[in-house]
What does this fold into?
Amino acid sequence: MADHDGNHYLEYCITEQDTGREVLSLLRKRLHLSEKKIRSVKMDSHGIYLDDRRVTVREKVQAGQSLCVLLNDTEWREDCLIPFPMELDILYEDNDLLFLNKPADVVCHPSQGHYADSLANGVKAYFAEKQERSSIHLIGRLDKDTTGIVTIAKNSVTAQRLTEARNHHLLQKTYFALVTGCPKPEHGYITIPMSAYLDENSENKMIMHTDTENGKFAGTRYTAMQIFEGFSLCSVTLETGRMHQIRFHMAAIGCPLLGDAIYGTGKTEHLARAALHAGKLDFRHPFTGKWIQLETPLPEDMKKYLNCGRINESQKWFG
It folds into this structure.
């Protein structure tokens, strides 16, 4: 539901079982809103409606009534973002979600050296152009060099539900990587614990290393899909989301990503970056419950490398 001011609402139909309960109880038990969100809608003049009537959280409900709660964030965390118009490759969009196909050499959010030209800045300009009152909540981030699907929730409730879905593996992203050699075995699960340290030899960047004593658990599943002479195309899924996890784990088993300057040998003839692409996403919509699958093809540099590769006689394809 939306009103003339561009506000977006979550609607809930009151059941017989709910009769006599306070709105506050429904916000917590039925809609599973965080206490922070409840506080914000309580204070907003357009926060909570019962049958088109503005009510407080102490209002008692009756079966058949319609409860509407404002989804738009009342505290706009990204107000400091500078709008930066850029071409966005939109894969899917609705009132709650935005999925983009990120190119290489673009950061997801403002960082050192990229305070105004990040993907978030581009989305800010996109929302402003549409006069849309939406926030920007990145659900997982991709490295600057990594291409592929980026998930953006347009409000904190959607962000909360997507994060919970990801934690329960109901939002699963599949990556595709070009790696040196061929991993053995060709199907595998890597659980090497990881820790980060500041590497003075790499412009003081944070680098991951193996830490069996104090490192954090990290789980990576991979499959060698196509095998060429000297390299392979692998599909990879993550059980955890550590920094540089795929790049580090594949290097740790002797198959660093092609083009990876940190964990591999660096640029190749056709690859000026680590060859990693977030190409597929399966998720359950946080409000409708519908399963949605998004896919985006390999970027041109990875395609070109594949086309130049010579297929090994032992090539295999795992569907």
Q: What stands out?
A: The CA atoms of residues 103 and 147 lie 5 Å apart. The chain has six helices and 16 strands. The helical segments are 23-29, 35-43, 119-130, 156-167, 245-252, 300-308. The radius of gyration is 23 Å.
